[in-house]
Amino acid sequence: MKLEVFMPLQGRMLEANGLVLNERKLSTYEEQVNHILATSQVFSYMQDPKAFLKAFEGDAGIQEKIASMEVKTETEGDSLYGVMRFQCSQGLSYSEREQLSRYVDLQFDKAKGGYLLSESIETTAGKMQLELWNPYTSEFWMDREKPPELQKYKITDIVHPADPKLHRIQALRDVNETVKEGDLGGYVQRKWNLSQSGTSWIYEDAICEDFARVQEKASLRHHARASGKSFVTGKSEVADYSQIRGYAYVRDAQIKDRSIICGEAVVESLERVTVFPVIAGKSRVRGQIHGAFLVQDTSVSRGQRLVNPAEVKKRIETELKSKKQPER
Fold it and tell me: Which residues of the chain have pLDDT under 50?
């Protein structure tokens, strides 16, 4: 999982009556800004997750999952922005992401000026004070993709027979080996639901609604449904009558039959494991599953965390006859 926070940059020319440079004017100094972010002692602790999280008082497991972090700039259009990026070795649940975002907020110390750190740099126009700040709440972008040159689908006027807020999608170009230009797909509520990048697709009568999102190479098939603020990414395949709900995060996993991934669940493969987790039958997952597991007709409760870094799947199976499944 990759988490990113975008932050405005502000420059103040110290020798020109305090002239303030906004993001657009700062783009001229991109090379100098990146250099000072990478080399300055003032910003150095923001490149080291152990140093940055030294005062973190949240769940101890969060720090263990953060493999690296960096602060650099990115250009959007003709403007320059700061980006704080965390690379996680294991996916963080919604509550874990919330704890981390609150901690990032504290670093900006909004009550005392509203910027995180500042440093002076030499430019061709004289000395400039660079400020990295954030007037907003530090909400993360997850596994962000670069926007494509050409959109891959449009939302048609074909309305879902049972829900008028949902409309079918149609491919505007060849998306992958099975979806060609002109093909109809499943249903979405808004453009956010399916990324315009990658080969991700919503097939047949599958649905992605609310603020759920499908991206990269992921797919929803048959009558599968993603809702809430759930996230389906990587090479995930969600099929049959499965549901991804709430704040669930699914990456590189196969979810099938009538499985439900909900709450703050995390289901993902591990980078060093080539075997995807498979959730099947009438399983319900609210906890975290990392690595090679076959979960069959099983309940994984909130707070339960399963990690299998091996190449061979561990089979987990329980009796769920007493567990009532939602009707479709």
Answer: 321-328
Instruction: Give the β-pairing of 288-291 and 305-308.
Output: parallel
Say if CB 66 and CB 49 are below 8 A apart: yes
Q: Measured on CA atoms in the order 152, 156, 162, 164, is the torsion positive or negative?
A: positive
Half-sphere exposure of 249 (CA within 13 A, CB side): 22
What digits encode the pLDDT tens for the residues 47-97? 888 888 888 998 989 999 999 998 888 887 778 888 889 999 999 999 999
Residues with Cβ within 8 Å of residue 62, at least 6 apart in sequence? 53, 56, 92, 96, 99, 100
Residue 39: both structure tokens together: 């080399």
Q: Looking at this protein, which amino acid is placed at residue 162?
A: A
Counting every residue written for the chain, the total comes to 328
Task: Give the span between the Cα atoms of 306 and 291, in whole angstroms.
Answer: 8
- DSSP assignment letter at 203: -
- Closest to 243 (Cα-Cα) out of 268, 260, 256, 221: 260
Which alpha helices (DSSP H) does the chain contain, by range?
23-26, 30-39, 41-44, 49-52, 60-65, 94-108
Q: Which two tokens stand for residue 66?
A: 């953060």
Helix (H) or strand (E) holding 294: strand 293-296
Closest CA to 231 of 254, 213, 257: 213
B/e letters for 73-97, b = 16+ CB within 10 Å, e = fewer, are beeeeeebbbbbbbebebbbbbebb
